[in-house]
Design goal:
With about 230 residues, this protein is of the alpha/beta class. It has one domain: Rossmann fold (3-Layer(aba) Sandwich). It is built from 9 helices and 7 strands. The protein has a 7-stranded mixed sheet, with helices on both faces. The radius of gyration is 16 Å and the shape is globular. It binds S-adenosylmethionine. The site of S-adenosylmethionine (SAM) has 21 residues, from helix 1 and helix 4. S-adenosylmethionine binds next to helix 1 and helix 4.
Length: about 230
């Protein structure tokens, strides 16, 4: 069955869509990003400045690919995602990880229980991203760090045109062949085109209470990593 969410990002529809893509999520990701996703994960791990034993929440962890990168660096990491299918597939592929089901808008964790929180390619899919930023703030200790990786749109005009062509024409065609639910990848390009740019996202992060908000572009600005700190 092909399931696809739309820009209203209704939670049940988004979770069901990720349930459907879960069996082939990792391989589709690798193909659609030409393997760039591995460099992006390494960049997130560096941005967190992982120290051994550091308690990290990897929110919207999906199949745990982002979680595994942090665990490999020595973190005590908990992955959390609201898609049952993604968590099931993650535990099948990576049984050593601690992955649990939970909603970014109502996190099942005590206040100030982590040293850092990461969210890779998840915030764009949350119905109320401001609420998720506030929830992440709540569960991080004062002085703790936020790292958000998300797709973005390049600022240079030629690169912007090339990227738009890729995500609106090429990506849907490839995903229909390699994914277990090609229709879901139509939502992918719609949600990327609709997502705020880097400065606007920085403002949202600041409005949720985070300070020292910074971003850096990856892969010609097609991805951005935002960092911020919960004030002491
Ligand atoms: C594109 S995947 C990213 C997975 C993983 N972080 C990675 O880098 O491969 C986005 C994930 O966000 C999750 N997600 C979307 N909205 C969510 C919410 N409100 N609460 C928890 N997870 C959510 C989806 O279920 C999906 O697994």
């Amino acid at each position: 069955m092909e399931v696809r969410a739309n820009l209203s990002k209704e939670a049940t529809a988004v979770a069901q869509m990720f349930d459907e893509v879960s069996p082939r999520y990792d391989i589709t990701n690798t193909i659609l990003t030409f393997g760039q996703v591995f460099a992006w994960r390494a960049a997130v791990t560096r941005a967190v400045q992982v120290r051994p034993g550091m308690k990290i929440l990897d929110l919207a962890c999906g199949t745990g690919a982002s979680t595994a990168s942090l665990a490999k660096a020595g973190a005590d990491v908990t992955g959390c995602d609201f898609s049952e299918g993604m968590i099931r597939e993650g535990l099948r592929r990576r049984p050593h990880l601690n992955l649990i089901q939970g909603d970014a808008m109502d996190l099942p964790f005590e206040n100030e229980s982590f040293d850092a929180v990461t969210m890779s390619y998840g915030l764009r899919n949350v119905q109320n991203p401001m609420r998720a930023l506030e929830e992440m703030y709540r569960v991080i200790r004062p002085g703790g760090r936020l790292v958000v990786a998300e797709f973005s749109t390049p600022r240079s005009q030629p690169m912007h045109s090339l990227y738009t062509f890729y995500i609106t024409r090429v990506l849907p065609a490839i995903s229909k062949v390699v994914s277990s639910d090609g229709a879901a990848y139509d939502y992918l390009h719609e949600s990327i085109m609709d997502w705020p740019d880097k400065d606007e996202l920085s403002l949202m992060i600041g409005e949720a209470g985070w300070v020292n908000v910074q971003w850096r572009p990856l892969s010609f600005g097609t991805v951005a990593i935002h960092r911020a700190v919960r004030p002491l």
